[in-house]
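Its record is set out here:
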Amino acid sequence: MQVTGSCHCGAVTVEVARAPTEVTWCNCSICRRLATGDVRIVGTTATYRWGDKTIDFHHCPTCGIATHWSPLDSRGEDRMGINARLLDAEVVAAARVRKLDGASDNWKYLD
């Protein structure tokens, strides 16, 4: 079942092919949720590159809400991350939440 979320003003929407069964809460300075699979972003976003400059962080140019990140590398990986907080609270509440320690640069799950 497809789920849809949006930024605060609604200018950018995120469509996910199915509700996530697991989301990652990362405590690094930017990352909020990692996801893979069929995702469609509708609307124009602005980007920001930080750190090792391997991913672009996307946000709505109108309201500023972070929508997703996408990799810059050409390894052919089908991956991206979306901000799960854009989805309905019920969708996120039904998923397992894993905590990732990105703040200490060890990138280990805390569960």
Notes: The two ends are 28 Å apart (CA to CA). The longest strand covers residues 66-71. The helical segments are 89-93.
